[in-house]
Amino acid sequence: DGGITQSPKYLFRKEGQNVTLSCEQNLNHDAMYWYRQDPGQGLRLIYYSQIVNDFQKGDIAEGYSVSREKKESFPLTVTSAQKNPTAFYLCASSNFDTTTEAFFGQGTRLTVV
Amino acid sequence: QQPVQSPQAVILREGEDAVINCSSSKALYSVHWYRQKHGEAPVFLMILLKGGEQKGHEKISASFNEKKQQSSLYLTASQLSYSGTYFCGTEEDNTDKLIFGTGTRLQVFP
User: Fold this and answer.
1) Over the stretch A33-51, which tens digit does the pLDDT of each residue have?
2) Using a CB-CB distance cutoff of 8 angstroms, which residues of chain A are in contact with residue B1?
3) CA-based nearest residue to B69, from B92, B46, B47
């Protein structure tokens, strides 16, 4: 079945450690996105990528990094520079542009202690 | 800049109607609507493209006024399954990024 997979579903890390969240899609989508969800703030865009080896910062990119070495994969690294990393992270993908629906993964809940 | 949604929350009895609004300060090329159940991924409802169209399926429809940079989602004769948080997503003209609003929490009671 085609879809978008995020792993793990829950992640715990100690403060000061970098952590990488996985996002894989087999929908042959060109565009991929990372969003952060906090209560009352909706979905905020962290990074997005329209093609392999290219990506752009979203509204809250500070403290995060991404790579897009393969069309299917768009991992997000939460670095120690991110001041408040505990949140629910959602990955999405769509066909080339935003005139087609975006498909979301099930999300990763990151807790930093 | 996130689009602004209103109201922030809505409480309904089954069978009642609701309208959720989405407003942007930028010229928009498209508007998406999604519904998210607690702890789950957002699920696509519909897309409206520049041109002022109105779309709908079953008892959920939406309009897009590009001049006012606004979209509205209409839920009629609400059902218990409509409960969740609704998000609008917008693409500004000449950009490739999809930005979501702050969400509207809808609760439908029997």
Assistant:
1) 999 999 878 899 999 999 9
2) 59
3) B92
